[in-house]
Amino acid sequence: MAIGTKLIAGNWKMNGLREDGAALARGLAQRAIAAQGGMPACELLVCPPASLLAIMGGLLAGTGIALGGQDCHAAPKGAHTGDISPEMLADAGCSHVILGHSERRHGHGESDAVVREKILGAWRAGLVAILCVGETQSQRQAGRATDIVSAQLAGSVPNGATSDNLVVAYEPVWAIGTGLTATLEDIAAMHTTVRTSIPAGTRILYGGSVNPQNAAAILGLAEVNGALVGGASLDADSFWTIARCCG
Ligand code: PGA
User: Fold this and answer.
1) Cβ–Cβ under 8 Å, residues 11 and 46
2) Which one of 73, 96, 101, 191 is the catalytic residue?
3) What 8-state DSSP symbol labels residue 127?
């Protein structure tokens, strides 16, 4: 995977019924097809809820926009009510899966060890794992942001990570869905720290209230290899505008 090409990933979270999910996918597909040779200079990925993967796969086929899951179980199959396996995501047309998102870590008590097992499961199924890391507001205020993120990486990146099977997303927890973003200096500094813990050439995305207004400055940082976009990915115009900030 070429680190020079930025990755813009949309995390729809638990949003979208069939009708609005399909409308959003069609909006993106139309823009991609209309852009033809003038596609944004980045790779695009959308991670809808599992219920929409099948529809999305059909609507995005041939557009160059990739499909991803938002989470998965570590096992290939079995008695895990409510879970989805990496193999199921791959079977539904996914190339990527988001793992260790703060809403999983904090909302579902996922530890680094659990996230590590999930990444191994994702690799088994041939998926690229997008590993999310980030500190809470109190951890940043206590001056522990770098230590927290480094510990998350140490605890959750398995042996065997390469720039082809891993993407890291730095998402300060306090910036997710709040309209707050880290300063450009703090983003650059944290990405520089993250880079010391992962294989050379691995992409590092920034996430946390990325929107059409702040995307150009964030994506303009040499340390930033793309963005993980939540709220702003639910609007085709916003997502496309962010993608076009890649230059
Ligand atoms: P946000 O979400 O862009 O709505 O802050 C980002 C994320 O949680 O991945």
Assistant:
1) no
2) 101
3) P
Q: How many residues are present in the chain?
A: 247
1 pLDDT more than 60 = no
- Residue 213 CA to residue 152 CA, distance in Å, equals 30
Dist CA 111 CA 115 (whole Å)? 6
Residues 167-215 pLDDT 10s: 999 999 999 999 999 999 999 999 999 999 999 999 999 999 999 999 9
Q: How is 65-104 classified by DSSP, letter by letter?
A: EEEEES---SSSSSS-TT---HHHHHHTT-SEEEES-HHH
Pocket test for ligand 1, best of 70, 99, 206, 228 (most atoms within 8 A of CB): 228
Name the active-site residue from 103, 135, 171, 191. 171
Q: How far apart are CA 217 and CA 220, in angstroms?
A: 5
Helix (H) or strand (E) holding 151: helix 145-156
Residue 87 to residue 75: CA distance in whole angstroms: 9
CA 110 to chain centre: 17
**Residue 221 carries which DSSP code?**
S
- pLDDT tens profile 213-234: 999 999 999 999 999 999 999 9
